[in-house]
Amino acid sequence: MRTINRLSRKKIQMMLTTFGLIATFAAFTISHAGQSFNKLTFGESPTYTIRLDETNTPTSLAMDLFGNGGGAARYVNFNYTLAKRSLSQHAVLDETGTLSNDSDTRITSMKSVVAVFTGGEATLKTGPTIDTLDDVEILTSGLALVFDSDPYFFSLTNTGASDLYLTSLEVTYSCVHVHSTISFETSGGSAIYPITQTIGSALSAPTDPTKTGYLFDDWYSDEELTTLYNFTVMPDADLTVYAKWAVDPEYPVLTIAEFKALDPEDDDLHFVSGTVILASKMMELTIIADATDLLIAFGGEDSAAGDNVRLGGYLGVEESLKVMNGDEVFGVSCDTYSHNNAITLTPNTISVADYNLLDPDTSTNWGVYTEIGGTIEVNYSDNTISLIDAEESMTISVFTEEDFYFLAGYSGLDVTVRGMVLPNMDDPLETVLMFVHNAHEDFIELNYDTPQDLLDALELMFLDWYQNQTYFPGQYVDLPTDHAVIPMTVGYELVEGFNEDKFDLETGRFDMDIVAQLTVRLKITITLTDPDPDVSDWFYADLDVNPAAIKTIEYVKAQEDSYEVSYAIKGVVMNKQYQDEQIFLLVADATGIIYVNTNNDEIVTGDEIVAVGYKITQDSIVFLMNDPSQTVDHIRAHNQEVPLAPIVITIADFNLLTPGFVETDLRYYELTGDLKYNNPEEPSTSGFYLTDGTNSRGIYTVDAAARNMLVVSVNKNVTICGLAIVTGEGEEQSVVFAYMAVSGITIPE
Length: 749
Prior knowledge:
By secondary structure, the chain is mainly beta.
């Protein structure tokens, strides 16, 4: 039995990869001609030496790979401290004790070995790979053994009857770049040791790896397993090859019921087949079903709903819930046999009211394939989807934004939806249930007996959409010609005698110059294209338009913040600023100023716009916020003056404004005085200030256009308008007069 992974709505697993055996490796000193260095690149020196003695401790081990130009540094790992009785001692090898370099060693060929020792018998085995140490030599203390066979791996073993005290070991390697290494990635199969040989030398394939439940299907030179690798001669550069595996058709595959019937202490790898109900990479979750039961697997996410798959993993148990867990490295394996298969398991049919009565702490309610009927309701303000049945409501959970919009396509429709009831354990103190849908068309269906029943429901939806709102002059009206999930077409006609000249079907907009409330009538025809033959019906929809639907900025700012109620305003853009890849417009009408977000970069200062959004306040600043592609409905005119009357104030009184007062609202002020350069000797870079002879006020120009407006009026008595804003933080806060080009400038007579 493997410990169960707890399920949460957003399961995030962080894997910290460390060299787990670092404490068993010795540190080493690399030197050439008596000079030590920290890294080595091929061609730097003809040879290098690694010396192990009592000073080497695992805390200073360096295992980095270095590169320089066309070369690549190598590293060597030694299981040296395993032979030490304490870190401060020399290595002591008892009878059969062994010192060797590791299987992941990346080196050039060994040139010589010198061991200084007492006692025991030092037997050195060498070879081209770690599993072909066929050359055997008995070492003499202090006498170098020189190789002419270019070995890469070695093991030093005490073959004597007494302990062998190793004072030091020096291994000298070649630095000439004439060798390469082939590494093997077996993807969960048995390990294959790297092959290091002379470039161009004859090469044989290693023994085939093995993997439980699979048959080896050759080596490939790319991770995508598209290019077969042929073992002929050693490559010019290091290379990793990848094992391809095929499902072993003879290996036992259990039904889900058989897997769940295993002994809870079973710790063997098992394979189970079934059809995917739900798969999520984000949650590392796959749920499959067969005719006997369903199974939750933590992993195997490379699949989609309807796939017939074989999952491989281990039994996990918590209370009565039995799941499949994977191993720590590769997780649950997943092999796909086919796609677009029907689910053979019959879902548990309940009502919304029944679902709401389920006990989240009862594990028998977890992992149940369930079918529930109701009407889909979408809340775009918080991106939630609900299923409504009479007075009862429940939330449907999805994993991705794409899944959300798939299910949102059924908004307003009566459906039967199938999904999984799963425990959400985000809060360790409280478990809640969530009904998870896989956003697949085979797991949701419409609940209408006849095509006419569906047409009647669509008529009510269209009428609810078009007739339960009031439009403003110039507003865009969405006129869809099809449906996201229903095969159908929609046609629109203007009805004569109902202000047909005030609405343009091609643009979908009302006339901008409507000055009184009126009604435009549309004839809407819906044609269902499935079933065959087509079935159609038509109805009238009355669209009410009223100039009063556009609210003043003062009115909007007085309302409570809400993502439920939207407002339309009309105003002139005073300033445009960019922040965090967003565009914010400072918009004014005759009653006030507000910020509006947008992604329309064609809008410029002086444009009169109509914007639609939700009133949101942040740090006392009021915004009209919406999807940035929809906030600005249209531009009415260009090059407009600011419609807001400024607050006329003296420079002295402006200087008395406090940050606390200014922060409470955006206020537009008018100042009069002599315009001066801060630094007349450098006018091209100088700022500006306004003075009445006694008092002065610096002017902040928001952009180049504002600066250019002031330049032509320097040394003149002027009247200018601008915003009072606060800059700085804490005790460093101050009030600034911000001038914008749209405010203009007046020279009193």
